[in-house]
Amino acid sequence: MEGKRMSNTTTSLASTRIDSVLDANSFVEIGASITARSTDFNLTGIQTPSDGVITGYGVIDGNLVYVYSQDVSVLNGTIGEMHAKKIANLYDLAMKTGAPVIGLLDCAGLRLQEATDALNAFGEIYRKQALASGVIPQITGIFGICGGGLAIFPALTDFTFMADKGARLFVNSPNAIEDNYEEKCDTSSALYQSEETGLVDGVGSEEEILQKIRTLVTMLPSNNEDDASYEECTDDLNRVCSELVNCVGDTAIALSQISDNHIFFEIKENYAQEMVTGFIKLNGMTIGAVANRSEVYDQEGNKTAQFDGSLTSKGCRKAAEFIEFCDAFSIPVLTLTNASGYSAGKCSEKTIAKSVAKLTYAFAQATVPKVNVIVGKAFGSAYVTMNSKALGADMVYAWKDAQIGMMDANLAAKIMYADSDMAVIREKASEYAKLQDSVQSAAARGYVDTIIEPQDTRKYVIGAFEMLFTKREDRPAKKHGTV
């Protein structure tokens, strides 16, 4: 869409953000003349242009999107009746046309002067978000205050990005939490919300956030009936990834290695880092990727974190939510498996079973093409949970040195021959590794389709997804599951 920006709104921070996230001169404003309707508490004497929120549509790299941006210069961006109705109406248009909604939040909360009118309209937004879930992508950017009931907005959307300076996200402010205060633990900060709660998918400067939103929109389908997001592939489909074997620890790097032109858009990169989730491109097609990770390296090649290879509660829930999004929007799923078991500990035991069940359910329920590459250890029930043949993986590959079985061979031998000396245990461990822990043993039983060289991973997974392009799979008729 070319030409002059079609808006009557004077330049403000809210409108500047819209212009930054959309293609140049593509924004068309809707409802610019709407103002507050309430007359209580002297509101009649206060100007409320656009009632504190700019709404409209535009394009990102040619893709239609709807966007609303809260204007903090109008009654501190508080949400009144008409403010909320404008957002709700925008959702109606987005659902009719099948296009994403982007919300740019900067708001002091509900407008006290409008009481139940504001509350009712606020609830209408919740309902629109719930109805839109799984139908159109919903993306949130947080640039200022997002507190109380407004904090539910990003939680009801698919992806949330938060400015590292000036933005605050909370249900209860840090100082309102018993035995806490902001200087002790700022629970409203971007750092806390991205590392501890997992509500925020990405953190950065305002410019970085808006660019992340633009990039994400170009990788996603517009709605759940869109065929998918495709682009021409300029990379070699048979490209050999010679360094891939060295990335078995940090699978975020491994995913970037096998992706077209090394494109990898990581989701929740600061949360549960032992599990990697994000989008890659294979032959121009967007693929959702889930991978176990035992090491984290920064851009300078320094190791910043290390994990024991076990599935954690946070990691399982992170992956399950991501898989559910991919399945809702028909995005194929690739997994890189390197799991040694479940995390052990008193705190973990409170949630691990239910969390693993969530991940197991997500894989089993997903009807999109599912490809698994076992790159390291695949032990016990953790292996089964990570997109195994048993849960419905369409194709399973394994690197030639992968280990697949009940548990580590040495531990198995110690359990089975507990009263034997070390010589016997070593002998039995070697025998167990050959018979039960080897990738050849799993392949002989059909649990692995093909044993591959690490460097050939890219061409094999591309071939698999090409083959699975027309996959159709039904599930038993039901209203919804309950896991």
UniProtKB/TrEMBL annotation:
- UniProt xrefs under InterPro entries: AccD/PCCB (IPR051047), AcCoA_carboxyl_beta (IPR034733), ClpP/crotonase-like_dom_sf (IPR029045), COA_CT_C (IPR011763), COA_CT_N (IPR011762)
Q: Which Pfam families match?
A: Carboxyl_trans (PF01039)
A GO molecular function held by the record? propionyl-CoA carboxylase activity
Annotated ranges, domain CoA carboxyltransferase C-terminal: 236-467
PROSITE patterns, alphabetically?
A: COA_CT_CTER (PS50989), COA_CT_NTER (PS50980)
What Gene Ontology terms describe where this protein resides (cellular component)? acetyl-CoA carboxylase complex
Q: Where is the CoA carboxyltransferase N-terminal domain?
A: 1-184
Q: Which residues form a coiled coil?
A: none
Protein name per its UniProtKB record:
Carboxyl transferase
